[in-house]
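Structure representation:
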Amino acid sequence: MIVKREIKIVTITAIAAILTFGFLVQCTAEAAGIVATYTAPDGFQVVSYASAWADTGKLKGVYDELLRNRHGEEFKLLGRINIYPGPDPEGKSSAGKYYAQWKMEKGRPVLTGNRYINIYNGNEFTTVDSIARTLAHEYGHHFTYYYFFKNEKKLWDNWRNSGLAEARGLKNNPRVSAAASDHKWLIQEIAAEDYVQLFGSPTVKKSYRFKDIAERLQEGDVRVDYSTEIYNYRPQENYELPLAANLPGLKDYWLEASDLDDTAGSPPSQVRLRLDKVNQLRDRSTPQYVLTWDKSADDKTANLEYTLVWFEKTPGNDSRIYPVKTVTDGEPLTAVIGAAGNSHILMWEEVPSGVGYFVVYIKDEDGLITSSQVLAVDFGVSLSPATVNIDDRSLLNGVWFPPRVKVNERQMTFDVPPVVLNGRMMVPLRAVFEELGAVVDWEEQNQKITVNKGETEINLWVGDREAVVNGSHFTLDSPPLIKNGRTLVPVRFISEALGAYVGWNEKLQLATVEANKHLK
């Protein structure tokens, strides 16, 4: 699919159904008649029913491309690839399908031989490169079916109690299922997409250099055309999950299951993305937003590639996903969205209307690709948007916005997460208030907390709603509590008692504490 992007408003249709597979379904398109067949020395066949694939040399190219995907003993159970001229006869918008079949032996599933892959719309996609990603994805089903059955000795229905669930970190994600109605949340699809990232052909992993609005203005380039299958723009179908290489145990799981050698080494290290500046350009209502990120590191690649992408989550509708900019090490690790201008021209493009999500994909020379933490930006206040970084654990658990705290613009991390009780955020005692420069003391015998800063002394007791500040008594909505060995206290009450300002962003579930800002 080719997307033509203009400067003003663009909608990119999600490709949630572009890479699919089938179960035990017999295709009826053979009625179209065989146009050409290539038979490899090992007996594998590539069969064309599409006039655009009448050359056996092209069909051999398909077989050669298949072999560029890493494979092991499972390969012998795949017998052929069929290329059909038109769409999936079942009426689905599938670019391809893998046909799995298995039998039960001694209570465990075993994949049977002569499996096959169908490629659709062969008269539209007429080159090996144009079908390479579909081919890799469908082969990923073959690979993951074979080794999941062999290694786990169970069907996909029981995936949650498997080593794969642990390695992929999805054991507690309620949206993932072996029978999910939403294609991208099927565990089988996630596994096939992981295969492409970890073991797929180099053909699939080619990149496109995207330009942000500032660079396009400089070069006089108003439009950008690109395919939704570009690897550094859409490395996996499900953009709501961390990439496969973000989880080091996942590659190890499949390497051990398949007995393949690790030829790619370590992936690029994860980086943190941040909104660095907001610039108001002349009288435009759309500001310029400047995003920056840190340099990554890799065991082999000196100059890594970075691509910034943003998306909006729109329940009930296709999500909008936009590439922003591609850079490599040695260039500024920064990108611009919104507006750009010079002394003669002012350009602007659409930015998220509510909460936008930004991520940087980092790719090395082996094609391994990792994602930064997702940066969520609430554009509700366009000139001073609130931001939070969403870590991989939150993505994997499907809880994007647990209560979070920033102190003096620094996002805090806790071994025991904050909780909200009676409308009040309770936070681990020491981490927040020592960040504010306070001294915290704990009396075990009386379960008493004392917080001192300058001339202010605050006394609280676990389980007691009474608090004392410099001798004055106050009643708390929620008393201090102990959770998993940590004492949690109300962040607003203590912060304001210490003279700090506390703000709250409902969309991001974010409390902001600023020591040098006057109370409002």
Summary: The chain has a mean pLDDT of 89.
